[in-house]
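Predict structure. Chain length: 115.
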Amino acid sequence: MKKIIFTLALIVPTLYFAQDSQKDKKCDLPSTYQEPAPDKKIQSFLKKVDATISDLRKHIAIDNDCNESDVVFLRISEQKGNGIYDVCVKGKSQKYKRMGSVFMKNTENPFDVAK
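Prediction complete.
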């Protein structure tokens, strides 16, 4: 009996939290939300290869068929060679990454050529 109660105590919370997935969450940002500011030194370096935040905003807008004003940055983590960006696009949370000067969704693998 103790084993059954212990097993249920482990399974019930797991099933409860499994239903609350990140894919279903929407971005509910307050009207006073301010986007994080990118590092100016890195942005001036990336300007040479057209890989700045404004270029990413254009890329995301084209990718999702929306206006650039619909793209809101939640988190910016970047270096000169790569970067990861959490964005809110038309109310949906998405992640993008930059490798060198190429932007792509975080789920894409640029090295997977066998499709």
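Summary: The longest helix spans residues 2-18.
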